[in-house]
TrEMBL record:
Cofactor: binding comment: Binds 2 calcium ions per subunit.
Any Pfam family the entry gives: Arylesterase
Metal-binding recorded as keyword: yes
Keyword Metal-binding: yes
Cofactor: Ca(2+)
Superkingdom in the source lineage: Eukaryota
Protein name per the record: Arylesterase
Matching InterPro entries: 6-blade_b-propeller_TolB-like (IPR011042), Arylesterase (IPR002640), Serum_paraoxonase/arylesterase (IPR051288)
Record keywords: Calcium, Disulfide bond, Glycoprotein, Hydrolase, Metal-binding
Length: 391
């Protein structure tokens, strides 16, 4: 029989186990939060050229966007996300129904009006459903997370950018047992960390520990801190964990001295100092600097010219309801609000530069800022087009 003291400790343990996820779920719900309209007046929605296989013939469902060179950005877009998302584990495609392929789009935001076109891909992967991407302007490479529908094995696809800047050539596919639920990646610039075939080393996030729908649901609902960030050493083609204990690791971005990681379910961003020692083991060391609350289910991060742009979902549970809905046009389905923050890590706190209740632009997943041109670009998991805004 338990004595009163033991019963008290058991009660405390039960209350703690309930209070921990409840605290974070209440924050994600943001029930009384009003989402103001900020920054949309200067935005242009770029929809691209007509394509017969997208739901409305236009550029849509772009999870990530990164800035390249000369006023050009690249976006990873997948029209199949309308009916299937492997991160959230829903699939509304009928058996035998045509499933469109994902694509990489080029957005020229230096022209007026901004223009978008789908890039030609030579030797395209057959089962291509891109998520996070990164561009390497020195090596003229684009690296993209691919979550194929017909396989449980995720990959990073490596493409070279041809001289016309309109064509990608598929160079290689990277797979590894530790690349199991990849979401975002950050490429190292350091040439001493390249593989023999020229592939750069990189960081990537695994957004979940579990890979099945039920266990993912438990992981998310209980806010289990069991996802991670890995480092892939291209020289030896091995991946190892460098950041552990995260509740839904998502965006990763930075440079060769700093790494930022978003923790979606705890609504915060982690900053690390990075030390590279190519001839040592391990070749990379991360030292924790700070974690910054951002008040939303934070999605992707883009660090460019000393500024970190943070995009996400200010009403996280509304976003989940919207994303999982089979028919998102129903009045009973809440709109997925959007929010983008800008942060100068060395001198201030994050500030809102774009915000919308989801009726103008829903489900923002990425923002990126061209400081020299003063242009903010915003991408969405579930809306049409890319926003190009004055910053």
């Amino acid at each position: 029989m338990l004595n009163p003291g033991n019963r008290s400790w058991i009660l405390v343990a039960i209350l703690s186990a309930v209070a921990y996820p409840l605290y974070h779920l209440i924050g994600l719900a943001a029930l009384n939060k009003v989402i103001p309209s900020i920054g949309y007046e200067s935005c242009v929605k770029v929809v691209g050229k007509l394509l017969k296989f997208t739901p409305d013939g236009l550029l849509s469902f772009c999870e990530d966007i990164v800035i390249g060179q000369g006023g050009v950005a690249y976006a990873s877009c997948d029209p199949a996300r309308e009916k299937r998302n492997k991160v959230l584990d829903y699939n509304y495609f009928d058996i035998g129904e045509y499933i469109p392929s994902g694509n990489i789009w080029q957005i020229d935001y230096a022209v007026t009006p901004p223009a978008a076109k789908m890039m030609k891909i030579v030797s395209r992967p057959q089962d291509f459903h891109p998520l996070g991407l990164a561009v390497d302007t020195k090596r003229n490479l684009i690296m993209v997370i691919n979550l194929p529908f017909d396989s449980d094995t995720a990959a990073v696809e490596v493409f070279s950018i041809e001289d016309d800047r309109e064509t990608l050539v598929h160079q290689r596919t990277i797979q590894h047992p530790n690349l199991y639920t990849p979401n975002a990646l950050h490429i190292l610039d350091n040439a001493d960390m390249e593989g023999s075939d020229g592939t750069p080393s990189f960081f990537f996030s695994n957004d979940h520990y579990f890979q099945t729908k039920l266990l993912k649901l438990i992981e998310n609902t209980a806010i289990l801190p069991i996802s991670n960030v890995m480092f892939y050493d291209a020289r030896i083609q091995q991946a190892s964990s460098v950041v552990n204990g995260l509740a839904f690791a998502n965006g990763v971005s930075g440079d060769d001295s700093t790494l930022f990681v978003s923790e979606c379910n705890k609504r915060q961003v982690h900053q690390f100092n990075m030390t590279l020692s190519p001839s040592s083991s391990p070749p990379v060391r991360l030292d924790f600097v700070q974690k910054v609350p951002v008040g939303m289910a934070v999605d992707n991060l883009e660090y460019h010219q000393g500024v970190l742009v943070i995009a996400g979902h200010p009403k996280g549970l509304d976003f989940m309801h919207y994303a999982m809905a089979k028919d998102r046009s129903l009045p009973s389905v809440p709109r997925a609000a959007s929010q983008v923050l800008v942060w100068h890590p060395s001198r201030d706190s994050p500030s809102v530069v774009f915000s919308d209740n989801g009726h103008y632009y829903a489900a923002s997943s990425t923002g990126t800022l061209d400081v020299s041109r003063q242009k903010l670009l915003v991408a969405s998991l579930y809306d049409r087009g890319i926003l190009v805004c004055d910053a």
